[in-house]
Amino acid sequence: MTINVPGLVSIVTFYLLILVVGIWAGWKNRGKGSQGGTEQVMLAGRDMGTFVGILTMTATWVGGGYVIGSAEGAFTSGVVWCQAPFGFGLSLIVAGLFFANPMRSAGYHTMLDPFQEKYGAKIGGLLFLPALCGEILWSSAILSALGSTLSVILGLDNTISVVVSAAVAMLYTLFGGLHSVAYTDVVQVFCIAIGLTICVPFAWTHKAVDTKALTIAGAWEGVIEIYNVGVYIENYLLIVIGGIPWQVYFQRVLACRTPKQAQTISYLAGLGAILLAAPPIFLGVIARVTDWNAATHGTINVTVEEHGKMILPLMLQFLTPPWVSFIGLGAISAAVMSSADSSILSSSSMFARNIYQAIFFTDASERHVLRVMWVAIVIVAALASLMALTVNSIYGLFLLSADLVYVLLFPQLLLILYWNEYCNSYGCIASFLTGFLFRILGGEPLIGLPAILAYPFYDRNLGQLFPFKTMSMIISLMSHVIVSLSSRWIFLNNWLPPSWDLLQCFDCPVNCTAVGSIHQSVTVATISQLSDPRRKSHDGSINAQHQNLDMGRMYIPRPKLRRNSAHGIYRRPDSLSTSSQREPRNH
Predict the structure, then answer these.
(1) How many angstroms from the chain centroid is the CA of residue 167?
(2) In this structure, are residues 269 and 117 in contact, taking their beta carbons and an 8 Å threshold?
(3) How far apart, in whole angstroms, are the C-alpha atoms of residue 273 and residue 192?
(4) Mind listing the pLDDT tens digit for each residue in 228-273?
(5) Which of 406, 417, 472, 506 has the fewest Cβ atoms nearer than 10 Å?
(6) Which positions, given as ranges, span the membrane (predicted)?
(7) 369 with 38: CB under 8 angstroms?
């Protein structure tokens, strides 16, 4: 396959456009970066406007994987099985209703902050694993989409295309933080909307397209077999709910000026994501009724199995005039590159802040943490490339990435925000292990993992027909609740001695004593407050960790507290204990 020189020129032009916009945005905010440090790089100084916020959140989901995967789903299985676009759009709306407000109101920096604030740096850092896997798989879908596009334009092998795509995305991400990413996302949205919309009428009127065939029942809708009803419903639950606990989403929520603005942006971005899925889905439908032998003049034997993931680039190349295909292919390439940096930046931000700084180097400077982020960007890009080369279906990567987050991370996020008082580290670990175990036992054909446990309705040819992923998520949720309540009851009622409290969740941390009575309270330096001791607390007061809520008594300070480095809190030495009844700490 020869190199398409005009196509190469178009993609280079769009790359340069995105690059110039990114550099301009970084240059425009260069003074703010020197003052705000990591908060400027990660969260754009929490000063993101509504217009830019809506477009960057929309563009975060409507990337190359979203666009090409939507066309792939419509082409291979019909519109009814193209679940990701509608599911992820609805996911943004649900996230805005229930999760954007509490996260932004608390003033966190990353999605993992509430976990480390509650369970300590190390236990909370455990949840970095499913979050990282989800982000890498999402990045893999994006890079795979760009790789297939470049293979069509340049005639390169898909492996070479993915590696080149990863290098481009990595270099662009290293240019700057969220300011650059947000402004390039604005360009991405317009490229997708204009570029693909222009392509639709030209593809529709191509002589190789049999538009009359669309009037035949089942020609474009797709079919849901009765044995697939459970799987179909579970897929939507997995996408809608599993699309919530993503750092790439909360990074934009936390960058908003107010919680109300974060909710508004989420609602409108959800609607925008659904609307922008229309052109690629329509192009996928057209591909189902195209005579590809006539369209390609016999040069390519297009099949669902072999060319499903490349169907959109093939349509733009063979069903539209050259100048239209250049616009469409360039728009897709620019969109993919702009989306890739969002995902890579999110995962590297979590690593630098919640793992490197929070666990290993708590005294690291802002400049030090930023350098670690640069190294993490390179590593994440390499891992995403590896996954993009080992999984064939972009649509499958969509579902697999949401799968891990759905089963392992959503129950944790739900409970930490709405059941915080009763959560503890024992429940967190139990939830993680049980959810992971039941999910892995069900197997995963996309990565060649066999099914060890045959759930009800299991079929050797069709695989798991029982909604075992949702069952695994519910088991994970209930495990957290049961273990947290049980451990709380056991230790608070002294059914087990303090030495058995290995995670020290119920040790008695006291920092002051009232005259005539024992007053016990906890001093917890949260992850967010450690980064800025002047930061306001949730109720608007300054330095809230040193406040005393009972102002009607005089308090005598206790002796100096001993820091428990494993959990990042302070507790009283055991020799000073004055009460036989132990109270739960914040874990």
Answers:
(1) 21
(2) no
(3) 11
(4) 888 899 889 988 998 899 999 999 999 999 999 999 999 999 999 9
(5) 417
(6) 6-27, 48-68, 74-100, 121-146, 152-174, 186-204, 267-287, 323-347, 368-388, 394-419, 431-458, 470-491
(7) yes
C-alpha 192/C-alpha 207 separation (Å) is 25
Are the C-beta atoms of 581 and 492 separated by less than 8 Å? yes
- Give the tens place of pLDDT for each residue, 348-372: 999 999 999 999 998 888 889 888 9
Give the residue among 212, 356, 337 at the shortest CA–CA distance from 286. 212
φ, ψ for residue 520, nearest 5 deg: -120, 135
569-571/512-514 β-pairing: unpaired
Record the tokens describing residue 548, joined without a space.
């005393």
State in Å, rounded, how far the first CA of the chain is from the last one.
60
Among the listed residues 47, 58, 103, the one whose alpha carbon sits nearest the alpha carbon of residue 417: 103
Nearest C-alpha neighbor of 289 from the set 360, 217, 209:
209
Residue matched to tokens 């979203």: 66
Q: Give every CB contact of residue 6 below 8 A, 6+ residues apart in sequence.
A: 322, 326
DSSP 39-51: HHHHHGGG-B-HH
Sole residue written with tokens 């000026």: 257
3-state secondary structure 445-468: HHHCECCCCCCCCCECCCECCCCH
CB atoms within 10 A of CB 538: 11
Q: How far is CA 198 from CA 10, 61, 213, 412, in A?
A: 16, 21, 23, 44
Return d(Cα 345, Cα 353) in angstroms, integer: 12
* CA distance to 191, 292, 293, per residue, from 322 (Å): 17, 17, 19
Indicate the SS3 state at residue 256: strand
Short-list 276, 243, 232, 220, CA closest to 87: 243
Decide: 109 and 40 in contact? Cβ < 8 Å. no
146: Cβ contacts below 8 Å, ≥ 6 apart = 64, 161, 162, 165, 168, 169, 332, 333, 336, 337, 340
Do 182 and 42 form a contact (C-beta atoms < 8 A)? Answer: no
**Residue 476 DSSP SS3:** helix
How far, in Å, CA of 404 to CA of 242, rounded? Answer: 8
Which amino acid makes up residue 370?
Answer: L
- Token code pair at residue 483: 């273990």
Helices (H), 442-577: 468-492, 527-531
